[in-house]
Specification:
alpha/beta; 3-stranded mixed β-sheet; 17 helices; 14 strands
């Protein structure tokens, strides 16, 4: 007497696709079993592709058959059982050895004879051929999309897949919102938590859950080259034909901020907002924090060199967090551009811009020559890879760098054609940022002031309890001018005129 297992399978693991597939199979197979008076001992169902071996439910059923719990299988079609040579060969082997004495299919005939086994192997071979041919057709379509500069897959946040043109287009509802988030993070003044709140407030949430996006998804968005006009496919960067959301420069700034934030996190939850911010001015080691509890029960945060102890004799003293926070505020105040200087600067920038109109031809020619040279390098690199003179790892590494450079040059050319010399806009942006630093120094949190100083300065050091920051251009000129009248940052910060000083000449802008 033959006993059977029912086996039902659908290819997709997505619960929303082929929803009725397994249910329909079970219904049909139960009716078939009743009409043919088959004894069913167990039913197996799974949502898993059969193009490769390793299906857990299928392996469980085959193990039960090998142990003698049943000697027959009832399935809708042989391709439900296997689409690969390993699983198909396993079934035929059990038929040969008597482990399986009956295979029943409503849509396929099988008998345990040489002819029946031959037809079964043909059915398994056809199923494998269908899978292989389908895969090749899909890969051919993907390769064609890559040649056209179109990402094969779901469009990232801010874009949508156009159903007719099969391209990826900007989403009018979210494009500007995502761009604002990316540009905000590039400033380095926002944490991932603040970016998450910003996105939630703008309605950039999970499409199904409606909940705030997890940090992992936000990290993927911030590191996705698609937003500057390229895209990554299987580790390789390709130039895209879609509309970029940000420039390559902004994308690189985002990566710099991400790299900085990927370091061991400062313990802000415990109130240590300046851990990882500065180094010891005597020995160069990082500054860490610890909490001291007084007899009265009051808690104070202190900062010290990480190597201060028995084995390392660093003479630098502890610094109270309140003291360090005040010094950070003083250093931020040094970066304030008064309102009167702002007006004079903007007028000067406008006059320079008018003089420079039409004089950008040499720069354009140089960029075009650099673009031609980069394309030549890409072609040469591809030839070397096709001739097997370099391996795939080296090819991808160099190709990705050259592709990013090519996109950056093209964007610079586009900026020159549309906006003239870009440095005017950069200088204008700096003037406005320096002017709004007044609000940052007066009202914002210590964490935001710390982030600001890490953006405009470098190598903060603490020596004898005093903070020193090396400011980048053009901030260094502004700081030197603000200090021209006052000997120290503390004196300047305490001055009643630090936000509207009119007693010295403004520093020349140097954003070019």
């Amino acid at each position: 007497m033959n006993t059977f297992f029912i086996y039902c399978r659908k290819s997709s693991e997505d619960e929303e696709r082929q929803v009725l597939s397994i249910e329909a199979q079970i219904t049909e197979l139960r009716q078939y079993a009743r009409s043919h008076q088959l004894i069913i001992t167990r039913e197996y169902t799974e949502s898993k592709s059969a193009k490769a071996p390793g299906r857990p439910v299928f392996n469980e059923m085959m193990l039960a058959i090998e142990q003698g719990e049943a000697n027959g299988i009832l399935a809708w079609h042989p391709d439900r059982l296997s689409r690969n040579a390993v699983d198909g060969g396993r079934i035929i082997h059990l038929v040969d050895t008597g482990g399986i004495t009956a295979l029943k299919f409503p849509s396929f005939w099988f008998d345990a004879t040489p002819q029946g086994k031959f037809m079964l192997s043909v059915a398994f071979g056809q199923a494998k051929y269908y899978t292989d041919n389908l895969r090749e057709n899909i890969l051919r379509g993907i390769r064609q999309k890559l040649r056209r500069g179109v990402l094969s897959g779901k469009a990232p946040l801010g874009y949508y897949n156009h159903p007719r043109s099969r391209t990826i287009e900007p989403d009018e509802k979210t494009f500007d919102k995502v761009r604002a988030v990316l540009e905000a993070f590039a400033t380095g003044q926002y944490s991932l938590t603040e970016i998450q709140r910003m996105m939630t407030k703008a309605g950039l949430v999970g499409s199904r859950s409606g909940k705030p996006l997890p940090f992992s998804s936000i990290g993927n968005i911030l590191s996705n080259p698609f937003y500057y006009g390229a895209f990554r496919y299987r580790g390789e960067i390709h130039e895209g034909s879609h509309q970029p959301m940000i420039s390559k420069r902004t994308f690189d700034e985002i990566q710099t901020v991400l790299a900085r934030r990927s370091r061991p996190r400062r313990r802000e939850d415990e109130g240590f907002v300046f851990v990882g911010f500065a180094h010891c001015g005597e020995c160069g080691f990082a500054i860490t924090a610890e909490q001291h509890v007084k007899k009265s029960g009051l808690r104070f945060a202190y900062y010290r060199c990480t190597k201060r102890g028995k084995q390392h004799k660093c003479s630098q003293p502890f610094v109270r967090q309140e003291n360090l926070s005040e010094q950070v505020k003083e250093q931020t105040a040094l970066c304030v551009l008064p309102d009167e200087w702002k007006g004079k600067f903007l007028e000067k920038i406008e006059s320079w811009k008018q003089e420079a109109d039409g004089l950008s031809a040499p720069t354009t020619d140089a960029l075009r020559a650099q673009l031609v040279n980069t394309k030549r390098k890409l072609d040469r690199l591809t030839d070397l890879f096709l001739e097997e003179q370099i391996d795939r790892t080296e090819f991808l590494q160099k190709k990705n760098a050259l592709t990013g450079l090519k996109v950056e040059i093209e964007q610079k050319l586009k900026d020159l054609e549309q906006n003239g010399n870009r440095w005017f806009e950069l200088t204008r942006t700096w003037i406005l940022q320096a002017n709004t630093a007044q609000m940052l120094a007066s009202h914002e949190s210590s964490a935001k002031r710390r982030n600001f100083l890490m953006e405009v300065g470098s190598n903060p050091k603490i020596t004898n309890g005093r903070l020193a920051v090396s400011f980048k251009k053009p901030w260094n000129s502004l700081v030197e001018t603000n200090l021209a009248v006052h000997r120290t940052a503390s004196e300047f910060h305490k001055s009643e005129k630090w936000w509207t000083r009119e007693d010295s000449n403004p520093p020349p802008p140097q954003c070019k």
